[in-house]
Specification:
Number of helices of chain B: 9
Number of strands of chain A: 0
Number of domains of chain B: 1
Strand content of chain B: 25-35%
Helix content of chain A: over 70%
Keywords (chain B): ATP-binding, Nucleotide-binding, Transport
Number of strands of chain B: 10
InterPro entries (chain B): AAA+_ATPase, ABC_transporter-like_ATP-bd, Metal_Ion_Import_ABC, P-loop_NTPase
Largest interface: A-B, 45 and 58 residues
Strand content of chain A: under 5%
Strand order of the largest sheet of chain B: 6-7-8-3-9-10
Oligomer: heterodimer
Largest sheet of chain B: 6 strands, mixed
Distance between the termini of chain A: 42 Å
Catalytic activity (chain B): an R-cob(III)alamin(out) + ATP + H2O = an R-cob(III)alamin(in) + ADP + phosphate + H(+)
Distance between the termini of chain B: 37 Å
Number of helices of chain A: 14
Radius of gyration of chain B: 18 Å
CATH class of chain A: Mainly Alpha
CATH superfamily of chain B: P-loop containing nucleotide triphosphate hydrolases
CATH architecture of chain A: Orthogonal Bundle
Shape of chain B: globular
Subunit structure (chain B): The complex is composed of two ATP-binding proteins (BtuD), two transmembrane proteins (BtuC) and a solute-binding protein (BtuF).
Protein name (chain B): Cobalamin import ATP-binding protein BtuD
Chain lengths: 367, 246
């Protein structure tokens, strides 16, 4: 820029630039990075399982995927033997665990932006839209004989719902919550009507209750595969647009002045939310899914010192909630959705207590 | 000298209510323009139109010689909005993270380089808040927070700084220091547009004044504004006199 010569105040001399040394990371930061790396490793591990589970159905690829898959389950049997459990030898359990682990990564990731944009209600709304999507999917299957993925139809309906929400939000002065609240109950109402009406014509092959409250047994190979693909996409998109999403979340007007396409990033965020919600609905259930977007973030925001740390801690707390919730649900034979959310809320209360104890509470300022 | 902002025959209304009526004014590069007017006079609306945040019903705006809707050099403008409109109050963002946002328009989707980080550190130093870099923006006082936003604008190497009542809720001492900072930035060549409800501050600092109340009542240098009766005309038009805090 030609004017930069005049701006001695903000143009640092070259020597300053070369002298600048990033500060070494402190212990807390290092621990977080280790934690995030472990979560990343866990994510890669479950994705590997999902891929094996998929590839073993293609004999043209040789016997290797099938052999590896069997070895996986044998290792699971040993794990069960050692732990005295009856979990890791079953493919359907692994699919649920894989889906859960991925939810524990992507839900807090997207949720961090949603919560601080004060769009938490949108997550809940899209979950209810996804429920309507499931209902529509069941009808489509009954009427047309379509035998593909139910979740795929739910995903399409939910993304359409997300675009409608964004359209509504653009046309209200701020993210006014009344039209969104109407859409929340409206789409759920349509879902219940469609399901009741459909029951008169076709036998519904799926237990609706499992979609409402979440279940570990509802996850199909198909569902786990979809979650894996969506998770990779969401993590990739957030990594690529981290800065832009942060800027529009923090100061939308200034971001607009800096010529960021705020509307496009908003749409991206809402569509990613729809995607996460449909994936997470399998394990958490329609009614509880928004909790995973919000609670880990609320807990992290209590103790985090920066936005990046909020993101890291949200994912760590989210993952801990998933693992803890699964352990509780399996050991007590209770639904996974409720267990995960209760564990997440325990973490939230701990975080509030911690921030009150250390005297740096933001509980009051989170209004 | 070329113009930073060129507003021509701009009219804008919120539904039935006319906010701006046929306003034209030019801000030259290097100007320090004080934008004043009674509450509800359309100051913020005019600033938003200048920056392309809202589109006028009629008329046109040019930023640095380009129609505002085609202007894409976002890094050339630093905007400090009214405090209430940013999430700085609740979001866990550090001062350093906030200031680095000023580099985002430069790097797009690439990663920030060490040079970007160094420029952000330099901006923190210029506004005198280097020691607060690791604090959360919501733990700062009003004056410190405004400095953080100014530093963000400096980090983006902005040529034009637009501020909307930046010192509301800031104590008198910090406010004076803040305006001294604006003076020195202006002296270094940055164009400044300042909305301020305190007319005394504006006439002390700005070298040009635009006084509006839906229509433009005065636009010219500060001396001619003080001598004119634009102030009483503009403020008399609605019968509201702005409350002075000192």
């Amino acid at each position: 820029m030609s004017e930069s010569d005049d701006h001695t105040l903000e143009s640092p001399p070259v020597s300053d630039v070369s002298q600048y040394q990033p500060k070494p990371a402190d212990l807390r930061r290092r621990l977080e990075v280790v934690g995030i790396s472990l979560v990343g490793f866990l994510g890669a591990f479950v994705i590997a399982f999902v891929v094996l589970d998929w590839l073993r159905h293609y004999p043209s690829l040789g016997a290797l995927p099938g052999t590896l898959f069997d070895q996986f389950l044998i290792a699971g049997m040993w794990a069960d033997h050692v732990l005295g459990t009856n979990v890791f030898q079953h493919p359907f359990m692994w699919r649920s665990i894989a889906t859960g682990v991925l939810i524990g990564i992507v839900a807090p990731l997207v949720g961090t932006y949603l919560v601080h944009r004060q769009m938490a209600l949108i997550g809940e709304t899209l979950a209810h839209t996804a429920f309507a999507g499931v209902a529509i999917g069941l009808l489509v299957m009954a009427v047309t004989g379509y035998e593909g993925s139910l979740l795929l139809i739910a995903l399409v309906v939910s993304i359409v719902g997300a675009l409608v929400v964004q359209w509504l939000a653009d046309r209200t002065s701020t993210f006014g919550d009344v039209p969104i609240a109407i859409m929340l109950s409206g789409s759920f109402a349509i879902g219940t009507l469609l399901i009741s009406w459909g029951r008169g014509y076709v036998s519904v092959p799926i237990d609706i209750e499992e979609f409402l409250f979440g279940s570990m047994s509802v996850v199909t190979a198909d569902g786990a595969r979809m979650m894996a693909v969506l998770s990779v996409a969401v993590v990739g998109i957030v990594a690529a647009t981290y800065k832009q999403l942060l800027f529009i979340t923090f100061d939308e007007q200034a971001a607009r002045v800096a010529q960021l396409d705020v509307s496009a990033y908003n749409t991206l965020l809402v569509v990613m939310t729809a995607v996460v919600v449909v994936g997470a609905m399998q394990v958490l259930g329609v009614i509880l899914v928004a909790g995973m977007l919000v609670i880990p973030v609320a807990a992290a925001s209590q103790v985090a010192r920066s936005f990046r740390e909020t993101l890291y801690l949200s994912i760590l707390i989210g993952q801990a909630s998933i693992v803890g919730g699964f352990a509780f649900a399996i050991s007590q034979s209770l639904p996974s959705g409720g267990s995960i959310i209760v564990v997440a809320i325990s973490f939230y209360l701990l975080a509030v207590a911690f921030s009150l104890f250390t005297g740096r509470s933001t509980a009051i300022s989170m209004h | 000298m070329s113009s930073a902002v060129d507003v021509r025959d701009v009219t804008f209304s919120y539904g039935e209510k006319l906010a701006l009526d046929d306003v034209s004014l030019t801000v030259e590069e290097g100007d320090f323009l004080g934008l004043i007017g009674p509450n509800g006079s359309g100051k913020t609306t005019l600033l938003h139109i200048m920056l392309g945040l809202i589109e006028p019903d009629r008329g046109s705006v040019e930023l640095f010689g380009n129609p505002v809707d085609e202007f894409d050099a976002g890094e050339r403008i630093g905007y400090v909005s009214q405090q209430a409109t940013s999430r700085g109050g609740t979001m866990p963002v550090t001062v350093r993270e906030c200031v680095r946002m000023g580099r985002f328009a430069h790097v797009g989707h690439s990663r920030l380089t060490d040079e970007d980080r160094a420029i952000a550190e330099q901006a923190l130093e210029t506004v005198g808040i280097s020691d607060l870099a690791d604090r959360r923006v919501n733990q700062l006082s009003g004056g410190q927070r405004q400095r953080a936003y100014i530093a963000r604008a400096l980090a983006s190497e902005a040529d034009l700084l637009a501020l909307d009542e930046p010192t509301v809720g800031v104590d008198a001492e910090s406010r004076d220091a803040f305006y001294r900072l604006l003076d020195s930035l202006n002296a270094s060549g940055i164009t400044i547009i300042l909305i301020e409800h305190d007319i005394g501050v504006v006439t002390d600092r700005a070298d040009r004044i635009a006084c509006i109340n839906t229509e433009l009542y005065h636009h010219g240098d500060t001396e001619s504004f003080v001598e004119s009766d634009a102030l009483s005309e503009a403020y008399g038009a609605t019968g509201t006199v702005v409350h002075h805090h000192h």
